Model the fold of this input.
Amino acid sequence: MSDLALTLARIQFGFTISFHIVFPAITIGLASYLAVLEASWLKTKNTVYLDLYHFWVKLFSLCFGMGVVSGLVMAYQFGTNWSGFSSVAGSVTGPLLAYEVLTAFFLEAGFLGVMLFGWNKVGPTLHFAATVMVAIGTLVSATWILASNSWMHTPQGFTLVDGKVIPVDWFKIIFNPSFPYRLVHMVIGAYLATALFVVASGAWQLLRGKDNASVRKMLSMGLWLILLLAPLQVVVGDMHGLNTLKHQPAKIAAIEAHWENKGDEATPLILLAWPDMAQEKNHFALEIPVLGSLILRHSLTAQIPALKDFSPQDRPNATIIFWTFRIMVGLGMLMMLLAATSLWLRYKKQLYQHKPFLTFATAMGPAGVIAILSGWFTTEIGRQPWVVYGVLRTADAVTPHTASEVGLTLALFVIIYLAVFGMGTLYVLRLVNIGPKTDEALQGDAISVNPGVVNAFALAPEFHPDAKSPATGKEK
Done:
């Protein structure tokens, strides 16, 4: 297979999985957010929480649907484009993906209908249980997917027989060395992406002059979550980085664009540069002495492995992941700035009126999604040239298609994905622009709160207090 065909196959997989990462990440965060909203409503009987629930459940269902559709494509690509990978490592990755379907997907599917359509069919406690089950299902799904992906980075618990991976210890396979760090890092990232989405939606409504209790509540809740999770993500990211340094040192060397160690000199932190893979050096480098050792080794003297310690064919593309990593970190710093500024404005009682801050919060809406994609690019491109690190090279995993065949399907994917998911995203943004309904907007169509049936779809004609029965035509 030509190098061009291999590159196109990698681009195609990266393009399709990038869409798939975005929607499940948002559904992970929104599912937990919906559970919190419903729990808050059950405890306080404050209909603001219920207004927000019915607003965000619409966006959740849209993102959930797009996530399922985009995920189906991924399964087929393992056979069509990466048959070598399926042949060698399918005995591990296949069962892990099957476990996801048997546990997470069935759990979500079983309770999703109750969550979306069961308000007038079940009591409030059972409906809340359904929401919680869906939220747990999204987390279980992430667990299995991250177990599979982490094993590809830090494989263990197997043996090779005739070039095929044979599982020997499923506990070691699932709980491989990088799995805990990747799982926590990804789930926090999903929560941050969702919180930023919620905050931006609230800030946008306030900038448009739509100031009510629901808008203020979702802005406030999202900012509190960012204030909690953004610093925590820094700590988890540091632990993840130390783990990667231990198991994938070439990736860290490429992320830092660190070409060689000079004597006993501590490793500098390169803030900005243009890594040149051909010439094996950095152009326009801006360095801070010693700081690289302090961050990566927690030492003032210890060095990290350098790119020149590895043969050229075993080096990840530093030009790409040097920048994707810095985009992720830079956006993380902006998240912390957003959270710290919100804390100050709360103290000054200007959180909902400060237009420059609200503009900043609105602009930060896509930052969480961009940070997730940047982090994923860093992780996956940093694993190259391996699909299963140290076991199976990417060039040996790809199906031997011609460049024209892969190029044609890539072009079709780009056209179809931009059309389908572009329209879906535009519809999501349209709903965000409308904003949540409020008690005032309902004009007396109050949602009944009683220990029996919950009339939560008050906006629908069949649930209007003054509407006629669709079956008899008589007044209810």
